[in-house]
Amino acid sequence: MSQMTSQTHAIAPEDADRAVIYGFVGRLLQAPPSAGDMDVLRALTADETEMGLALKSLSEAAQSANVNSLKDEYNALFIGLGRGELVPYGSFYLTGFLNEKPLAELRADMGVLGIARADTVKEPEDHIAALLQCMEGLITGAFGEPATLPIQEKFFTCHIASWAPHFFKDLTAQNTSAFYAAVGALGGVLVALETEAFGMAG
Prior knowledge:
- By secondary structure, the chain is mainly α.
- The chain has a single domain, classed as TorD-like.
- It is about 65% helix and about 0% strand.
- Helix 3 packs antiparallel against helix 10.
- The longest helix has 24 residues.
- It starts with 12 loop residues before the first helix and ends with a helix.
- The N terminus is likely disordered.
- InterPro entries: DMSO/NO3_reduct_chaperone, TorD-like_sf, TorD/DmsD_chaperones.
- Keywords: Chaperone.
- This is Molecular chaperone TorD family protein.
């Protein structure tokens, strides 16, 4: 959802892993998965860490999921006739309304970091998918040089940690889609682990 460049940079393996998960969850929340995406999910292997178990649960959910049904589930959860079951925007979770002060603050910070919304994207920048993909780009250097940990932490703390745990909890708890409940659980683990890691690094 965000405007990324084709630049590539050498980053530490652990940072590359973080970026992959951010991008992975972000893309699952940006649009329903394709048949190819589902093949990848079904073939996932993972360890017994907290992240590994969340990935395993998502892979298991993908085994019985149908691509066409997931399109309907995605629509019901995030789009709906007037509004989906969940509203995946930071402003809404933080203020109860769309396009409020948190979005303006995000846009200001994105401007400083050289991140711009792609012309083809119509959704506000505080959509959870866009924010996760922003973190992916900050880690990999897609917007220039890889961002330092303090810059990553500031963006994460201000624009993701402030509301995403609540969103992922709601997504995990809904009964519309077992697949997206597993996506929510994975997102919740990601945010919790990142919060802990930034706390230890600070």
